[in-house]
Amino acid sequence: MVMEVARARVMAFSMGKEGHMWDALKKLIGADEESKKRRQELDEQERLEREERARQHAKKLKHDADEVKRSKDS
Predict the structure, then answer these.
(1) What integer is the mean pLDDT of 12-31?
(2) What pTM did the predictor assign?
(3) For residues 24 and 18, what is the distance between their CA atoms, to the nearest angstrom?
(4) Distance between CA atoms of 67 and 71, rounded to whole angstroms?
């Protein structure tokens, strides 16, 4: 009887540890998914900022070219 109780306690302890490991693994996977999503959002934001800077630069180049053209026409 004592051995059965001890065996039951060991099994309960092991299952409890296993449950904690699964919980930790689930949290780790969840954290990885969150960080992956955050990286994707940051990449998208960076891409939009680059596109905006490129548009601004193209606009400035066009303005400068128009200025040079006007000064030559004068």
Answers:
(1) 70
(2) 0.54
(3) 10
(4) 6
